[in-house]
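Practice problem: predict the structure.
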Amino acid sequence: MNASQRITTLEDVPSDSTFLFRVAPEADEEREAILVEREGATPDGDEEPVACWLNYCQHMTHINIDKGSGAPMRDGELVCANHGAYFDSDSGKCTFGPCEGAYLTDLEVTVADGAVYLTDDDYAFVGEGPIDDDDDLTSTSNVKI
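Answer:
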């Protein structure tokens, strides 16, 4: 695995929320992504024990699912706190809400030696945490003061 693409340890991915980090599809264009533990995945299984998605709701793509302190989850589904959309943590499919039937944008990750690596050829790992953007309108209220 490429050490520069190491996101975090598998142990640091919460079982009841998300792990937020930054990626760059092109120079100077950072985006946020989230890791989420897959329901029922086992280390010996065919699927990776975590899924990775770009951190935005399919209903309104300027709305982040994880606003910086972990996304809310309910019964194994990610919840967009703004409009109540639910996304399956395994497939990324919206199962309820205004974007029902849409899918979160996935990124490829691989788990090796207890660490999670970004293996998606279209993105480079930038760092942990949210994008530091004073003009970002994705706060809980989406109102800029």
